TrEMBL record:
Keyword presence, Hydrolase: yes
One GO MF term attached to the UniProt entry: hydrolase activity
InterPro entries, sorted: Isochorismatase-like_dom, Isochorismatase-like_hydrls, Isochorismatase-like_sf
Chain ranges of the Isochorismatase-like domain: 4-147
Pfam families to which the protein is assigned, alphabetical: Isochorismatase
Highest taxon in the source lineage: Bacteria
Keyword entries, A-Z: Hydrolase
Descriptive protein name: Nicotinamidase-related amidase
Length: 185
């Protein structure tokens, strides 16, 4: 079986703060699905890798030294689980993630996180371009409403659906938390 890792993208409190502020979001059950994935990966000895956004903008909620930059409880890293900090949208840009995955023989990624149309999309595309097989867990990702060039606000479920369709067409195999195929323990 292919060497597999669970890759968790930007599961930080800044997103919970947006949701609490009433910003429309997709997949309200994503955190429960993410918690199941994390538990299953750890129980099977699958590597769990975390990517966190650490925005250099002092006003950003996504700073490692601010409450918004802290991990969500469903994806809090355990001691020994690597955390890669990024300042851009892709988890592979300037983080050393690709080298770390290659160093431990990982060729397949199970991906969960947020926001689907930003950092999840960028990371999945980059992973595919780098030759990793990607399983994107559709019920363990979420995003928010998006404003189009005409000023129209697009529903977060539409944003999620369109982004998943694009990623599933060429960059990832779409699975659910219940259909993930884990390596034998």
């Amino acid at each position: 079986m292919t060497a597999t890792a669970l890759l968790l993208i930007d599961l930080q409190h800044a997103f919970a703060m947006r949701t609490a502020a009433g910003v429309p979001r997709s997949n309200p059950g994503a955190e429960a699905a993410i918690a199941r994935l994390v538990s299953q990966a750890r129980a099977r000895g699958v590597a769990v890798m975390h990517v966190h956004h650490d925005d250099p903008n002092p006003a950003s909620a996504f700073r490692a030294d601010q409450p918004g930059g802290q991990p969500l409880p469903c994806a809090a890293p355990l001691p020994g689980e690597p955390v890669f900090f990024k300042t851009g949208s892709s988890g592979f840009s300037g983080t050393g993630l690709s080298t770390a995955l290659q160093d431990i023989g990982i060729t397949r990624l199970i991906v969960a996180g947020a926001a689907i149309d930003y950092c999840v999309s960028s990371t999945v595309r980059a992973a595919s371009d780098l030759g990793f097989a990607v399983d994107l867990v559709t019920d363990a990702v979420f995003g928010f409403a998006a404003t189009g060039p005409d000023g129209a606000v697009h529903d977060p479920d539409i944003v999620l659906s369109v982004t998943l369709a694009a990623l599933g067409a060429d960059f990832a195999r779409l699975v659910t938390a219940d259909t993930v195929v884990w390596p034998a323990a």
